Write the structure tokens for this entry.
Amino acid sequence: MKTEKRTDRADVLNPEEVAGRLHTKWLAKHIQYSATIDSTNLEAVRCAQGAWENGTLILTDMQTAGRGRRGRGWDSPGGVNIFFSLLLKPPISPDKASMLTLVMALSVAKGVEETAGTACAVKWPNDIVVNDKKVCGILTEMSVKPNEIQHVIIGVGINVNMADIPEELKNRATSLAIEAGRTIPRNMLLTAVLSHFEKDYEAFLQTEDLSGMLEQYNGRLINRGRMVRVLDPQGEFEGMAEGITPTGELLVRRADHTVETVYAGEVSVRGLYGYV
Ligand code: BTN
């Protein structure tokens, strides 16, 4: 990728262009853009303290305190990647909100396939993977008041045109540009992801589960048919991942042929021979 540094600078993340390209009905009609911010998820929490519109998009070019799952950070350099959060008020009970992370994972995978032209898989529940390495992470956070959702924040970080992956992540993370061998237009990719998400979210709300997108998700599930180690605080075990249920749990068949239903959350899943 000899021309990467020059072409990357030409790829400017531009909220006006995103708004102009978007043909959604209600999603991202309000875009809150800052060139630099601590974390779009934190900004979404601040935004939710005042009056806010369902489907608000919080977008930035660079985060100074990007947050990952399990209290980790999220590498968020400027000028190359996509970092955004959606602020939503889904009319569902709080116990169903975790499925929204899987809905977003599917929407990102479809947007990446369309824009970058690379095959894209999902590592359950919500890592997006290209050529067996992670290109995107999703952090969903929720505020609940006596059994009613106040808001859900879905934060998405996509390694788009990042040329250098931090040394400690190189064996399991990559960027779309590294895998596709060209600069990927960020405005176009973001628009594609948001367009898919509006449709997928509406399909989810119709049934309040993933039944309308089960085939699409399972078809991209990288763990499917592979041996996995389930890191459950109650006890680790190994088995063959078979797919997800309509409510988003992973089905894992043990050597004795019993099938375990694995819930996301405390549990994580690893391939037996590496990240996937
Ligand atoms: C993970 O650990 O896999 C989830 C990473 C989520 C990162 C995104 S970047 C945009 C949003 N703002 C944050 O601070 N985190 C999420």
In short: The first strand starts at residue 31 and ends at 37. The longest helix spans residues 186-207. The chain has seven helices and twelve strands.
